[in-house]
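Prompt: For my understanding, could you write out one protein's sequence and backbone structure tokens?
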Amino acid sequence: MSYSLEELRGHPAWRGLSAEAREFLAQSLLMPSRDVGSGGFAAVSGAFPSRKVGASIPFESRSAELALAVHMEFDADVLAFYNQLPPVEVRRTRKGGGQYPTSYTADFLVIRKDELKVVQVKTEKELRKLVETRSADWTVIEGCYVDTPASEAFRALGLAHEVVSTQNLDRYRTANYRLLLRSRLAETVCDDQTRAKARAELKAKIVVSLAELAKALGSKDLSPLLQLIDEGELVVDLERSLISSPETCWVSTDRQLLETHRAEWLAPDPAGWALASEIPSEKRARRALEIIDKISVGHMTPSVRRWQRKIQAGKAMGLSVFKSALPNWQQCGNRKPKRPDVVKAFAENVIRDRWGRAERPAKRGTYGEYRLLAKAWHPGLKYVSKPTFLKLLKELEVVLSRRRSGARGENAASPPTAVADRVIVAMRPFEQATCDHYMVDLSCVVAEKDGKRYTKRPIFTVLRDIATGMVLAFWLSFAKPSRVACACVLRSCLRRWGRLPESIIVDRGAEFLSVYFRSLLASLEIELVLRPSAHPRYGSEAERIFGQLKERWLDGRPGNSTDIKEVRSVSGSHRPQATAELTVLDLLNEIDHFLGWFARWGTNHSHRAPQYLFDEGLTRFPFSGRQAVYGPEFEILSAVDVSSFALDPRRGIKIHPYWYWAPELADLNLKKGKVLVRKDPENPYTVYALVHEKWVPCQSSRAQRTVSQTTLQRMAEAVLGTAPNSQLDDAIEDAESDLVIQKRCADERSKARKDVPPETRKPAKSKSSQPAEDAPVSKGEKSIWAQLRSLNIDAAPSGTWSKS
């Protein structure tokens, strides 16, 4: 559903608004969405499909905008919410005290049942920094952050402005809200009998885990219990437990009983644990006990008196005898630098100027250069040693990483984010998947002509479930990563499992940023998540399966190039292109076998196989994923638009190299500009044409050859049929070169015959068995025909035929 402008005009708060405020609200509802950028920070952006709004809501951060969108989607008091609001002019304060006008765009317009509000969401860390550095514009009033210029600008319009901190968007609650929202789409409904059994079980045990309650009810499907939680009949601590982990999610019918159970029986919050620095090592603890024993004996030695003074000082600070007796070995030794500050400062300056360059000089060479410069700069002072120089270089590595390696190098060198600030990872099958590409380290045979094999390295596209590690779908292609590969993995996934992932995380490749892919996911109500650009830490889920395929299967297969060092050191006769044997169908079969093995066994360090986790998750949460029907409608929806084609009412649609026909194309009044064409990404012999507002499947004469093929055979046919012509460029060039050579040989033979003198030429033999009459005869010699004419031949006797 979507909130219309007419509904907005009927809102109770609409009447008291000014004309400017009404215009602002109307533009907020009607403004088209824009693409959000990656910004100057490593944040994950994307688009969240909202059923309240009836559209995909772009977000720039999962912990901020996306979390707030999920909370508003779950809140029953929120009727609708919109982002991409029109900018308003605000006056902000400079550090020097002066003010300047600038534009400000809020994050959301929130339409509640009783009020209209403009909302801005920021991280708690960012808000604290703004209050500290820009106190003239940012303040805290009654525990709430206030953006004073923005509040004044919207107050002039008659609208309220609110700043939301991520501290109020608990990540556990956000993950639980997402699961409860998805459970509302479940086909299983909680009946009265299940409700009564749940009440009886909780009356007997007061507090039980969600898994134990489901077992007592005799059901592995958790959908009915999630509906009871959503309705409030069962109480769950949404901020300290995950419903998606039923073994550790405790439920009750009374919140006070649940809190008492947590305080008495459950482990304390890790945030309240003692710091690691307060827990002594075994060696320090043993030494403290030895000191206490020696003091208790009563021997008065200088060491004992020193220990007694130390314990007395510790007691004055509120420490116990044991903590006071702990030795402070970390403070022993001379901590003063052995070199003057000028020596260290010069070494740091050399590191910044010499090592932190785009040419990326080596550490060893940089230290050698530093020694020469140091001898000239401070000849009376000893330069720092190599270990000290490398230590200083390590300290400056993060600072200089951007100058040395660009944004990608800086992201790789930067420390990871705190675990407490990260979003909860997916814990259900089809909750989130990742899609990525990999050029297979194996040459595949694509053509065989004139006794020669032509090979190419295919692109392997995979759609992998993040929670379980299962590979949901895969595809091979000889073209660069494109919309075709994206469409094929989605088709394969839906055809096999009957559902698609709720969220797909991808990189910022052109195929994923295309209008086709984004609109396809939006129409399927799938959340699109874009990884930060130039950040090597993201996308490890897909990279792991690529590494497993490379190390555990491709290694040792004919035509592999997994060990690039060895490949460079072998002869041409032993290179992967020369030893390749596998066809496209062979490679598809082998990848299918490998993925089947991986699903049954997983990696060596996993305790449960991906297939087990996958089956268990779907049994517990059968509503997981975006369930859809694979049929003609989905095939047309996922087909790829074609702009270059020819239209002939007598022959059909021409897309090189095939003609496609359907009876609806026989209309002589049909023009190319009135026909939209989409090509089936999996079937090179089928296209779809929009003729007179109706999609019509058009087929080539070769379409019948795929009817009796297996799934992998059709896939191999599609991989070769939809591949670009460049895969056969080498074969075409060799064929044309051979044809040119044959023509040259024919020309040389013809030229050789022309260069022979007429008197030395051999007479050409007649095709007839008798010599020609005008054949040349040597002088004084009669031809055979002249001899025959000179002979006297008697006439043969003639008579009549007698009647029998």
The chain is about 40% helix and 15% strand. The radius of gyration is 40 Å. The first strand starts at residue 45 and ends at 50.
